[in-house]
Amino acid sequence: MATIIFKNLAQKLLIFQFLIAGLISGCNKPNDVALPSTVEQKPSNSKQNIDTPELILSAAASMQDVLREIEQLYINKYPQAKIIFNFGSSGSLQRQIEQGAPVDIFISAAPQQMNDLADRELILNETRQDLVKNQMVLVTPQDNQLINNFDDLIGQSAKQIALGDPNSVPAGKYAQEILTNLNLINDVKTKTVYGKDVRQVLNYVATGNIEAGIVYRTDLATTKKVKIVATALQATHSPAIYPIAVVKDSNHREAAKQLLEFLFSPQAQAIFEKYGFMTIGKSKGF
User: Fold this and answer.
1) What is the pTM of this model?
2) Class of domain 2-132+243-279
């Protein structure tokens, strides 16, 4: 009995944290490129029915802009739809699901986080799909003239290098693999500054506080303050694949499956491509 009570209290605490995060984010002034991991509540549509389930979609930070645009297409097709976005590093979102957070759909920026949830039987395996792929790039501020490739990171021109935390941010793990395979990892270790997600890494470079960073190609759609100086070869890092699945504890499985299916529609896939993602196509039905 004590275990049940503790679990119920834990779940209520997580929901309370979600709501508080949403209230705090609503009070913050928007940022040019970096947004904190938060739950985003969209304004109610006058056509919506109050009985329509609210779907919580937890997705990697690099998905923020593309999913907001796709959401508009989805609401145009299903005017009663309600979607609450929860963006952050894939590792932190994974932990939220493991702790019982009320999530309906999860999109990770790497297979590992989805694999871990599958091992714990926390997703509906039959709904798991690879949604899109991405590329890793080296970026600098627009006015940079001294850093033109990965080898330049070991020189005096790059005093600091921004990477995502490899323990929780897939982009950071990919960056670490790139630097290791290029035999640069030991030379840049003392220069490295870690961000909590890939958008924070991008923001460090966009503000000019750090000379270079390794991010996803798609992140460049959010700012004109940085430029790509080199693209990592696919052979230097694990494939940057974004898997998606319905969370097993979702109370709205059919609605979640409908949204997941829409993300593979030609209209949604076109938006992914517009933002620089490489589409894969749906591999199975469910």
Assistant:
1) 0.79
2) alpha beta
